[in-house]
UniProtKB/TrEMBL annotation:
Designated name of the protein: STAS domain-containing protein
InterPro entries named in the record: MlaB-like_STAS (IPR058548), STAS_dom (IPR002645), STAS_dom_sf (IPR036513)
Gene3D superfamilies: STAS domain
Domain STAS, chain residue ranges per copy: 2-101
PROSITE patterns, per the entry: STAS
One Pfam family matching this protein: STAS_2
Organism the protein comes from: Phytohabitans rumicis
Amino acid sequence: MSFFTVVRLGEAALVWADGPLDAAVAASLHEALYTVIEQRAAPVVIDLVRVPSVSDNVITALAAAASQAAQQGRGLELRLSGGQGFTVTGSAQLRQVMARAYPTAA
């Protein structure tokens, strides 16, 4: 089962997912990220530590959010398995990080 949760912590937003993120959640993830970025949440932390796989649709949604945040002069904070953390400031950078973290993304 794919799911994610959005939690607002003051001005910050945490997007937390547990389990594979597939195409079925991509549209709702895109909408949720669009909303928190438009509300100027800062920082926006996307916790994928417990996500073993993502679909290309999810990467596209994350890349759109990274681009939107970059237009506002901000980045997205990614948390990945193995204690990896990245601040991405655009869609190309997000795609590079995700390609290394999820090389088999469809």
